[in-house]
Amino acid sequence: MKKISLTLSCAVAAIALASCGGGAKAPEYTVLDKPAVDLSTLPVDGDGYIVLFDGETLNGWRGYGRDDVPGKWVVEDSCIKFNGSGGGEAQEADGGDIIFAHKFKNFELLLEWKISHGGNSGILYFAQEVETKDKDGNPRLEPIYISAPEYQLLDNENHPDAKLGKDNNRQAASLYDMIPAVPQNAKPAGEWNEAKVMVYQGTVVHGQNGENVVEYHLWTPQWTEMLQASKFSEKAWPLAFELLNKCGGESREGYFGLQDHGNDIWFRNIRIKLLD
């Protein structure tokens, strides 16, 4: 495989956030601007998809808000595996979410995943690396899902989140906490599933095991209404509401990431086609 090169980008971009509507005020935040993978150095398969994981290394990947890959993410049997501790989401210093170090705008992402018994994880897209400040003025990295819609990955049979939310909107392939995947065709824990995320000019489709199961439209009044009815509402979490409402920022692009939720999970055959 070709070696992935990194191209230096600009320094950190600071963005001051004005008051959200309805009287809620989100804090000021900073979006980190870090080196990006040069996609022209990556192989392209016979179907025109850029190969993002070579089956041998984690070249091109790094931790969210980090320059390295957390130690719990490894390559095993030609898969990216997260070695979970069972302690919950991002509970250990050598854990945390990972991202592919390039921002995408219009794309079709394909991958395969399987999860451990009772496991929980997710595919995040349009993510920004967001920093705020704590009460003492020190930088604080916000979680990846504060800016990124989530394609839920779950053992529907054994994880309690499958029965929370509304109308099964926390089950596998759902737009987490907003739209349930219909039909719900995920395979059991320990079996491989195929996932698709397609984004084109604001239309988003989730596919699972050969069927389209979610469709919605970013940057519309309907998107704002869905956010207001979710755990990311303006009242509950003003900064998440602001970032997700204008998902991808002014350029309408972002990273995609894989979530550390404390459980073992495997990914393989990760590839993407640009639709610009």
How far the N terminus sits from the C terminus, by CA atoms, comes to 25 Å
List the secondary-structure elements in sequence, H or E: EEEEEEEEEEEEEEEEEHHEE
CATH architecture: Sandwich
How many domains in all? 1
Q: Quote the beta fraction.
A: 25-35%
Structural class of the secondary elements?
mainly beta
Largest sheet: 8 strands, antiparallel
DSSP helical segment count: 2
Mean pLDDT, all residues = 91
Question: CATH H-level name... which superfamily?
Answer: Exo-inulinase, domain 1
Give a count of the beta strands, DSSP E runs of length 2 or more.
19
Concise description?
The chain has helices at residues 221-228, 238-245; strands at residues 6-7, 13-15, 29-31, 36-37, 50-51, 61-63, 73-76, 79-82, 98-100, 107-115, 120-127, 130-133, 139-141, 150-154, 193-200, 203-208, 211-217, 255-258, 265-274. By secondary structure, the chain is mainly β. The strands form 4 sheets. Strands 5, 7, 8, 10, 15, 16, 17 and 19 form an 8-stranded antiparallel beta sheet that branches.
